[in-house]
Write a structure and sequence with these properties.
This protein is an alpha+beta fold. A hairpin with a 4-residue loop joins strand 8 and strand 9. The structure holds one RNA strand.
RNA sequence: GGGCGCGUAGCUCAGGUGGUAGAGCAAUGCCCUUUUAAGGCAUGGGUCGCAGGUUCGAAUCCUGCCGCGCUCACCA
């Protein structure tokens, strides 16, 4: 950092200045934080150095992790631990500490697990015990010693040497209630992870889920790729994009709303089986199922149709549920989802099946055929139900898709594949040979959420151009989410794309279902929040 | 964006129909060599989210703003 050396050098190295700067970044309200704790702990750090310890050492050679020790010795009796003695060197963060005169206990936490240590002055010596007394909750230490069982039977390290590893200068949340403030948990996820072991579990499961997907696709001959996150045209989905700007090229770019069109360009290029697991960005509302950036798995398989990739996706999810949870059933609030029991029905069948009795006789297949009969269905439904948005100028297919969401989505708790979507809402899907208004497209629903979306990929460049032109008309009609024209994509298709099935899977939403998380923010480490208020006023610098 | 709710010590929370704040944990000092939400004694810590207003007096009542949560609308 360059500072203006003409001005009288401000006391930038003074403790007060450093504290003020640190607090600005670390705390919700810098002025309210107990500065004394911070300063006291800095003093303790100096005293620790004076004892001959490094304040921020570079490594610690351990013989065991805490999980290692718990796994290997939890079942051993006191006698077994004494003969022969088990020597260990182990590191962790202090999560509880109890001093009793000339001896004391502490609990070290590592990898989400805890192990007790016993520090006796006779065993660690004068200096070692001085160090113990200078330790605070949250500090990192390493200890060497041997395992034993206390009077109450707890597996414990009898410490012979303590090595200081790093200081926690800010106080951890209360040990009993932990950190519960939702905002703080998201903003300071690092503290959340220290304090709440179940949070750690959620993200470990999320990681297993993605591993399982990768393993499944890799074993089926798929190649993982990365395609642009910044795109000149935001295509491949129906959504509003974020805009950003490249300075040197002086051009606006969109953060991608989907990787779809790039992945399909790759199938043109001969990557017959490709997938990507990465973020998409959609500039839309937030809610329990929506975060502006979310993680999507997309894959494409040449020579396969929508049915083939439907089967592959179902088996991939079934396998993932087993890999993540060890079983086939997961809790969803007070309900249970059975991942071994899937239903399949067409969108039209679903509307008929879930049609509310109060809305009169169930629709007939013929009711979906014309704009007028669809309109009549909407009117019957809206007469008895929460009002469903309806624009008489929109294509009938779009109305039917909306009607499906209004009628059926809330009933789709168990894994269900809905197939045959209207062409009007599926600009990238092949249509049914016998019913051009309908496409070979499906979506998977579970827990009242859309989880995945797949179809037979439209690979006829001229038909694709007509679909884009249709979308442009929707755009002119005021639909800001309608797809844009993408000439290069059409050019790619003009070189010949093999027939292919493609799929997108919402990773966050599946992670929600597998961890019983009722909001998407609980499966995203750092969900989007408004920025913290700029701390303090002019006098927030050292005073 | 609309509706509802919340914001008090580092953390978890009381209090409140107006008289300028409490507990537990955490912190500091002392005692305690097998404790475990260790214990005992003592101590420090807060512009009660921010800004206005009403009032002799506001953490409390009113208005606006900020942040968060739930919910509805739009969206995966």
């Amino acid at each position: 950092m360059k500072i203006d050396n003409l001005s009288p050098s401000p006391p930038q190295s003074s403790p007060a200045f450093i504290i003020a700067v640190l607090f600005q970044t670390a705390c919700k309200d810098p002025l309210a934080l107990d500065e004394k704790i911070y300063e006291l702990r800095r003093d303790k750090l100096k005293q620790i150095e004076a004892l001959g310890q490094q304040s921020y050492p570079r490594q610690y050679n351990f013989t065991h992790t805490i999980p290692d020790i718990l796994a290997a010795y939890s079942e051993k009796t006191a006698e077994q631990l004494e003969n022969p003695r088990v020597n260990v060197r182990v590191a962790g963060r202090i999560m509880a500490i109890r001093l009793m005169g000339k001896a004391g206990f502490a609990h070290l936490q590592q990898t989400g697990q805890r192990l007790q240590i016993y520090v006796k002055k006779d065993a660690v010596g004068e200096k070692g015990f001085e160090l113990y007394k200078l330790l605070d909750l949250g500090d990192h230490i390493g200890v060497s010693g041997y395992l034993f069982r206390t009077r109450t039977g707890e597996l414990t390290v009898h410490v012979e040497e303590i090595t200081f590893l790093a200081k926690d200068l800010l106080p951890l949340p209360e040990k009993w209630h932990g950190l519960t403030d939702v905002e703080l948990r998201y903003r300071q996820r690092y503290v959340d992870l220290i304090m709440n072991p179940e949070v750690r579990e959620v993200f470990l499961k999320r990681s297993k889920l993605i591993q399982s997907f990768r393993r499944h696709l890799d074993s089926h001959g798929f190649v993982e790729v990365e395609t642009p996150m910044m795109q000149p045209i935001a295509g491949g989905a129906v959504a509003r994009p974020f805009i950003t700007h490249h300075n040197t090229l002086d051009m606006d770019l969109f953060l991608r709303i989907a990787p779809e069109l790039y992945l399909k360009r790759l199938t043109v290029g001969g990557l017959d089986r490709v997938y990507e697991i990465n973020r998409n960005f959609r500039n839309e509302g937030l809610g329990w199922r929506w975060n502006p950036e979310f993680t999507m798995l997309e894959f494409y398989q040449a020579y396969a149709n929508f049915k083939d990739v439907m089967d592959l996706t179902q088996s991939m999810i079934e396998q993932a549920v087993k890999d993540v949870t060890g079983g086939t059933k997961t809790k969803w609030g007070d309900q249970e989802i059975d991942w071994a029991n899937w239903q399949r029905m067409t969108m039209r069948e679903a509307i008929i099946y879930f049609w509310p009795e109060s809305a009169g006789p169930k629709p007939q297949m013929s009711d979906f055929a014309s704009q007028d009969s669809v309109k009549a269905l909407v009117e019957r439904f809206n007469a008895v139900h929460a009002h469903m948005a309806y624009d008489p100028n929109e294509p009938a297919g779009k109305t039917i898709a909306n009607l499906f969401e209004a009628v059926a989505e809330e009933h789709l708790l168990q894994p269900t594949i809905i197939y045959e979507f209207p062409t009007a809402v599926s600009p990238l899907s092949k249509n049914k040979p016998d019913e051009p208004d309908w496409t070979e497209r499906w979506e998977i629903f579970a827990g009242q959420m859309e989880l995945a979306n797949g179809f037979s990929e439209l690979n006829d460049p001229e038909e694709q151009r007509r679909r884009f032109e249709q979308q442009l008309k929707e755009r002119e009609r005021g639909d800001q989410e309608a797809h844009q024209m993408d000439e290069d994509y059409i050019r790619a298709l003009s070189y010949g794309m093999p027939p292919a099935g493609g799929v997108g899977v919402g990773v966050d939403r599946l992670a929600m279902l597998l961890t019983n998380s009722r909001t998407i923010r609980d499966v995203i480490l750092f969900p989007l929040l408004r920025p913290e208020k700029a701390p303090g006023g002019e006098d927030s610098e050292g005073k």
